[in-house]
Design brief:
The protein is α/β, with parallel strands linked by helices and about 280 residues long. The protein has a domain at about 30-185 and about 265-284: Diaminopimelate Epimerase, Chain A, domain 1 (Roll). The protein has eight helices and seven strands. It has helices at about 1-30, 40-60, 80-90, 120-130, 130-140, 145-150, 150-170, 190-215; strands at about 35, 60-70, 100-110, 115-120, 265, 270, 275-284. The chain starts with a helix and ends with a strand.
């Protein structure tokens, strides 16, 4: 009897150890914020991890944040580096498979500063987070300025918020792109202010028009100059001519449009590992 009880206890212990091992492996696989040098506090890293978990649960899409200090990594090699990092360490190792977005910060500072790189991964990730998304982050958000000010958590959380917006739109079958640009929804306060301005402009326009209309109805005009009483038919010029001694012509060229801004992107490409990627970034 004692042997049977001992056997049962050993079996239960084995099962528990196995379950703990599986749970630990799941925890390792579910980790999506990798901060090699501690630029984020434990609380900030945990909040970013929870934000990513919400994105995964809502959109079945993976997001990974990697912060590291890697010397001798040229800007042009960030694409190859992030492709290889995702393919080797992330791709296919979680339940959402290959589709994902990698946000990489290289904190090693050279003459140009530090670098960031956004890498869309997989059949959908590479398309939904291509040049348009990358350039939007670089030019129309506070991402780079916050990074430059050391507000890393706020910068990363802002990109996660924008990632949710782009994933929500992609779910409609019409992802944001140059031909379908993202427009920031107008706040209620801004809408109210614009409405008041439009009402004010309309009132001023209406008042001015009414004044001109009223003035046009008054045909009795007081004459203030003696020449206005001269009969024009009594004075006739038989001939006239204009003579110009000099002429000066000035030509001003039409200015051409110039474009500038942060963030650069490359087209969708296939990595050395055979997976689809899109990538782009900049300095901060």
């Amino acid at each position: 009897m004692k042997k049977r009880i001992l056997t049962v206890l050993l079996c239960l212990a084995t099962v528990m150890l196995f379950m703990l091992g599986v749970s630990a492996a799941d925890d390792v696989d579910s980790k999506r914020v990798f901060d090699d040098k501690g630029y984020l506090s434990d609380n900030e890293a945990e909040k970013l991890q929870e934000h990513i978990k919400r994105i995964q649960d809502e959109y079945q899409f993976d997001v990974v944040i990697r912060i590291a200090e890697i010397a001798d990594l040229p800007y042009t090699s960030l694409e190859a580096f992030t492709d290889d990092y995702y393919d080797t360490n992330i791709n296919g190792k979680y339940k959402f498979g290959k589709d994902g977005l990698l946000i990489f910060l290289n904190m090693y500072e050279d003459d140009d500063g530090r670098d960031y790189w956004l890498n869309g991964c997989g059949e959908h990730g590479a398309v939904w987070f291509d040049n348009y998304f990358i350039n939007y982050v670089g030019k129309k958000t506070s991402f780079t300025s916050r990074l430059g000010n050391g507000r890393y958590y706020e910068a990363l959380d802002e990109v996660l918020d924008l990632t949710e917006v782009f994933l929500k739109q992609a779910a409609t079958g019409k992802p944001y792109s140059d031909s379908n640009p993202y427009k920031i929804p107008m706040s209620k306060k801004k809408f109210a202010i614009l409405a008041l301005i439009e009402v004010g402009v309309g009132w001023l326009f209406g008042k001015g028009y009414a004044s001109r209309l009223r003035a046009s109805m008054n045909t009795a005009i007081k004459r203030t100059e003696a020449t206005e009483y001269i009969d024009k038919s009594s004075f006739t010029i038989t001939g006239s001519s204009d003579m110009f001694l000099y002429s000066n012509v000035t030509r001003t060229p039409i200015p051409t449009e110039t474009r500038s801004g942060g963030g650069s992107g490359s087209s969708v490409h296939t990595s050395s590992g055979g997976n689809l990627h899109s990538g782009g970034g900049g300095h901060f």
